[in-house]
Amino acid sequence: MSVVAGGGARMPEAEGRAAEERAEERAGFAPGVPFALLPFALVSSGETLVGKGCLGLVAEGGEPLGARVRAHLAASAAAQGAAPASPVSGISASGISAPGISAPGISAPSAAGPDMVVGALPYERGAPAHLFQPAELSRSAGRACFAAAFPPPALVRPEPLSPACMRIAAEPPLAAYRAAVAEALARMQASEGAPVGEALRKIVLSRSLRLSSDRPIDASALLRALARDAGVTAFCVPLPPAGPPLAPQMPARALVGATPELLVARQGRAVTSHPLAGSARRWREASADRAAAQALLASDKDRREHGEVVTAILDQLAPHCVALGTPEGTGLTATASMWHLGTRICGRLRRPDLSAIDLAMLLHPTPAVCGTPRAAAARAIAELEGYDRGFYSGAVGWCDGAGDGAWHVALRCAEVAGREARLYAGAGIVPGSDPVSEGEETSAKFAAMLQALGIDEDGRPLTEDGA
Ligand SMILES: C=C(O[C@H]1C=CC=C(C(=O)O)[C@@H]1O)C(=O)O
């Protein structure tokens, strides 16, 4: 379906587009390479990190990723004639300073370079990660450095002169997704007699929407819109262009999204995870919204779906921790569009040498994005989804030379490249799930990205009140 999205005065299409492309060039957004200048960003109401430029990519290779990150940062420090930089301390209300890291708000170039890598981990454990050492880093409590790095449109470019025209194709179509959910349920039922620990108990199935626009999609505007939700960590990870390395005409790519889920954070010996699973869409009308939240809290199906994730994370962390628990138990977590069941897990590491990236690789993929048992669920996902998830349901985050860092599950996101975007959403399937409801749940999860793009799931423009 082809429709017109957005507002603004109309002018002949070719003329309007040429004017917009001139404006993009003035603002440093060359048409076709709109992400060349995009920073890495993790934006939340608690803490914001913005990394600009790239001093080097963490190499691929046979070593575990954590070891390659340590080697990269040690080599970078040695090349600059310095001992590895001192650990980045915890963030305070006034922000922090460390080598290559500026005070909140303003990025200051550093000769030494930040003692940190940032980037994205793919869903497939064997696929290449995309981690790099930024040239400059800003970090702030709250969002101060976000506003500086991603200024509102009035400061860098005029509003679009004509509305964008966007087409959406569901891949797989909703009916095929429901059929895959039914097949997942059948496989779980068939495995019921399997030996203890081998029966399939949960499979997370996703679907995607392919979007094409008549002009480059503005990833900065998307990020700004997503970051308005106080319940998420909005992110932007610039990715290398897809396709052959010597294909300069390929548009650069970015992973842009708004996740509510913390895979793992490490600060010193303190380790935290905040897994989510079990979901309900939110409603505008307050009593309907409250009823949806209460029904979610009381739902046996959602509690089982959630319990699989908490148990798996506790089991994986336990051998590495001297203390581990869920101090607040399971409760509700809200984004602007979704309710989730969430459980904060806190532990104290036995050894100080297990870094944030080691911990992320230990836990990923949790049953929030894969299933239980992990290997059998991963096989079912590969067969039933039939596409490569790329970085969706992997993780985005950072790790410094001291091993501290935070990795967020890459959810409610899109891979954006030039005029194309691919959006993803999934749902956990357990015995008792219903294919139609799970399809509706994925639609509800698409809402955050679609609202930021100003369209509905069919590509139709949203009205002023977001309906
Ligand atoms: C897989 C997704 O969400 C996960 C995280 C929270 C709740 C989930 C659920 O209720 O199914 C999923 O496990 C997604 O948003 O694509």
TrEMBL record:
Similarity comment: Belongs to the isochorismate synthase family.
Q: Has UniProt tagged this entry with the keyword Chloroplast?
A: no
Keywords in alphabetical order: Isomerase
Q: Which PANTHER family match?
A: ISOCHORISMATE SYNTHASE ENTC
In Gene Ontology terms, what is one molecular function of this protein?
A: isochorismate synthase activity
Reactions mediated catalytically = chorismate = isochorismate
Basic and acidic residues bias spans: 12-25
Q: Which InterPro entries match?
A: ADC_synthase (IPR005801), Chorismate_C (IPR015890), IsoChor_synthase (IPR004561)
Chorismate-utilising enzyme C-terminal domain spans which residues?
176-445
Q: Its Enzyme Commission number? A: 5.4.4.2
Give start-end of the signal peptide.
Answer: none
Q: Does the keyword Transcription apply?
A: no
Which Gene3D superfamilies does this UniProt record tie to the protein?
Answer: Anthranilate synthase
Q: Where is this region: Disordered?
A: 1-25
UniProt name for this protein: isochorismate synthase
